[in-house]
Amino acid sequence: GIGAVTPAENWKERAANMAASTAGGMAGQKGGQMLGEMFGNRLANQTADLAGQQSRNATIDATRRAAVEAGYQIPPATINQSLWNRAKESYAGKIHTQQLMSGNNADVSDMLARRAASLGPNDQITGVNLAAARDRLAQPYRDVVALPPREQVSPASSYTDWDYPVQAQKGYDPAQALTDLMQARADAKLLWKRHAGPSGQSPESRDAAQAMTDKANGLEQGLEDYATQSGSPELVDRLRAARQAIAKNFDVDTAMIEGGGSVDARVIGRMAQADKPLTGELRTMGDFANNHPKLTQPDKLVGSPGVSRLDAIGTMLLGGGGAAVGGPGGIAAGALWPASRWALQKYLQSPMAQRSMLPSYDASLGSRAMAGLLGNPETQWMERSLLPSLLLPSEQ
Q1: Cα–Cα distance between 158 and 155 in angstroms, integer?
Q2: Are residues 100 and 212 in contact, defined by beta-carbon separation less than 8 angstroms?
Q3: DSSP state at residue 320
Q4: What is the mean pLDDT of residues 100-111?
């Protein structure tokens, strides 16, 4: 111990030193335990609080994560209003950055809409192009119509009042069913578009649109049953795939901006809000638009961000002052102001920055490191050795 090697003039001093060493060791051990418990409890409380936040934010976090993976961009302070995020957004220009991201998001919405509607990556989103895509997708339905006619066909599923039930005694006319299906789909598209409009959102308009969709679904089921009972079960899978693809195409048609060649993601959002079944790209678009309507405005509404007034004034003042003080070098220094803001804007729009801004619910590195250090038996000797020197007065 420390007392055994401390110089002592007599046995009384040696005994006093040894007693002080023993007391200090005990104090160090107790103090180390107290510190370990304190940081351990702090880590446990922080972990529990973060777990609660993760549970409460699970839905919006999933929406944002899917949106970012699809290419959408979100300002940092929108995800987490920390001082650092607000500082970054303020320096980059809050409104300017939001305009840039909204414009980019409009392009992402159009990309997702093309993919959902089975259009080419460079096809404009127009009524003609969407109709042409539907015609290609409808080939399995034409194949069903071309099957040899059968009499005495029985339905393989139940039907609602909106359906055209298969009449066994009259036979089943697939050609007429296909004609009725195309009309029902067109009517459903108009009803959903009316419901998704600013003035049409009501329970009655939604019920009317859903009823027409149910009628179309019943007609499709009838064609699937006919294909199965006609000895063409492989055609059923093609019909189901075509049904889903055509439904997505019609949803994009509903959200299409006439004469614009693009879509309004907020219309898809209103469909999702009305509980219209959406999947894939359209579900990602609709959920994101519902939670971030300003970031999903059509490109024509966003307008051009242009040049920030702050950049223009800052460059003029700094450049003018720099020219007076440092000549050409001072002018160049003045140009660093808008250049640095531009670089930060580009970084905030990058996929790497967007992914890094998504929330993490792990305890801070400092809390985990301190709790682990104080709870590690291999480091407890440091606590027993160092704490006594802090707790006991030093010898003069």
Answers
A1: 7
A2: no
A3: H
A4: 93
pLDDT of residue 282: 96
- CB neighbours of 127 closer than 8 A, spacing ≥ 6? 253, 256, 258
Residue 158, Cβ density class (10 Å: 0-12 exposed, 13-18 middle, ≥19 buried):
exposed
CA–CA distance from 85 to each of 77, 208, 279, 348 (Å)? 5, 46, 33, 10
Core vs surface per residue 362-373: b (16+ CB within 10 A) or e = ebeeebeebbeb
Going by C-alpha positions, the residue among 141, 172, 142 that lies closest to residue 156 is 172
Tokens 């510190």 identify what position?
Answer: 35
Name the residue among 226, 243, 217 with its Cα closest to residue 145.
226
Sign of the four-CA dihedral 118, 120, 122, 127: negative
Summarize pLDDT for 18-40 with one digit per residue, the tens: 555 555 555 555 555 666 566 56
**CA 382 to CA 50: how far, in whole Å?**
31
Residue with tokens 């300003």: 294
* Separation of alpha carbons 319 and 268, rounded Å: 48
Helix intervals (H) in 327-364: 328-349, 351-357
The number of helix segments (H) and strand segments (E) in the chain equals 18, 2
Are the CB atoms for 4 and 365 separated by under 8 Å? no
Whole-number Å distance between alpha carbons of 172 and 228: 13
**Strands (E) located in the chain:** 256-257, 262-263
Radius of gyration of the chain from its Cα atoms, rounded to whole angstroms: 35
CA-CA distance, 117 to 134, in Å (whole number)? 8
Q: How far apart are CA 74 and CA 64, in angstroms?
A: 8
DSSP 71: T
User: 43 vs 24, 47, 140, 362, CA distance in Å?
Assistant: 28, 6, 60, 10
- 262-263 and 256-257 beta bridge pairing: antiparallel
Q: How far apart are CA 390 and CA 43, in angstroms?
A: 25
Residue 166 has pLDDT above 50, yes or no: no
Terminal alpha carbon distance of the chain: 20
Distance of CA 224 to the CA centre of its chain: 36
